[in-house]
Amino acid sequence: MEINAAFIGGGNMGGALIRGLLARGLAPQKISVGEAVEARRIQLADELGVLVTADNQEAATGADVVVLAVKPQDMAAKTQGLASVLARRRPLVLSIAAGIRVADIAAWSGAGIPVVRAMPNRPALNSAGASALYAPAGLGAEHRRLAEDVLGAAGTTVWVPDESLLDVVTALSGSGPAYFFLLAELMTDAAVNLGLQRDAALELTIQTLYGAGRMARESDGDLARLRAEVTSKGGTTEAAVRSFEAANLRSIVAAALHAATERGREMARAFGERAAK
């Protein structure tokens, strides 16, 4: 991979993508990071050998792709502060901030700057991320490949045809690890209440979570079939599944994803359109 990549923000997600790019063979001197927190700058320089600076414009100078890895509420100010640098080289601007629309990012970046939005998730820290990407119809194949290469360095990627679907992605895979952790936490507590020692319950739960994920990843993706294969007629699993169904788990999950999707849309209104005015 022969590109110059700049990251505005060197936190967890930015760091995960940087590590993924390095693992794919991108030289450390090809990566620059604009990071306001001194301790993070020191850590990134010492651990990864990349170029670090407190000056975002300096970090973005000469980049082929500029990854905006900052909080949604900081996007307007950080992106507007890069506009003069972006105008000189016109790199791809790749945002991984939840909720902030392409139109807003493009307005802050300046006329003619190519923009892609992506929604990665926290397992990217373990090179097992799931990222969805969206690009406007006019964006060229080369820029699309570049965005996919950056996000693909930390896991799997999919493209969505409509930007509004990124709010659904945020609710599904962006927030999704927390749902699985919550279920695992509740399963562990329930097993302890039934008499199992906590350390044993925790070990069994975590390994079951990991093993089920591997089974799903290595399958043809038919989750209903996988569930059915574990659910013997008249057995213990069927009893548990029936209890879930009686509690209307399907509606509970649907309501949770709807709430998360709506929150993403609220964030876009709060930190995007309003901030742009």
pLDDT < 50 runs, ≥5 residues: none
The general outline is elongated
Helix-strand category: alpha/beta
Strand neighbour order, sheet with most strands: 3-2-1-4-5-6-7-8
* Superfamily (CATH H level) name of the largest domain: NAD(P)-binding Rossmann-like Domain
Mean pLDDT rating: 94
Structural notes for this entry:
The chain is of the alpha/beta class. The protein has two domains: 5-162, Rossmann fold; 175-246, ProC C-terminal domain-like fold (Orthogonal Bundle), CATH 1.10.3730. It has 13 helices and eight strands. An eight-stranded mixed β-sheet has the order 3-2-1-4-5-6-7-8. Helix 1 links the parallel strand 1 and strand 2. Helix 8 packs across helix 13 and helix 9 packs antiparallel against helix 10. It is elongated, with a radius of gyration of 21 Å.
Give a nutshell description of this structure.
With 277 residues, the protein is an alpha/beta fold. It contains 13 helices and eight strands. The chain has two domains: 5-162, NAD(P)-binding Rossmann-like Domain (Rossmann fold, 3-Layer(aba) Sandwich), CATH 3.40.50.720; 175-246, ProC C-terminal domain-like fold.
Comma- or semicolon-separated keywords:
8 strands; 277 residues; 13 helices; eight-stranded mixed beta sheet; alpha/beta; ProC C-terminal domain-like fold; 56% helix
Topology:
Blueprint: E1 5-8, H1 12-23, E2 31-34, H2 38-48, E3 51-53, H3 56-60, E4 65-68, H4 75-80, H5 83-89, E5 92-95, H6 102-109, E6 115-119, E7 129-134, H7 141-152, E8 155-159, H8 165-174, H9 176-193, H10 198-217, H11 223-230, H12 236-246, H13 249-276
Parallel strand pairs: 1-2, 1-4, 2-3, 4-5, 5-6, 7-8
Antiparallel strand pairs: 6-7
Helix pairs in contact: 8-13, 9-10
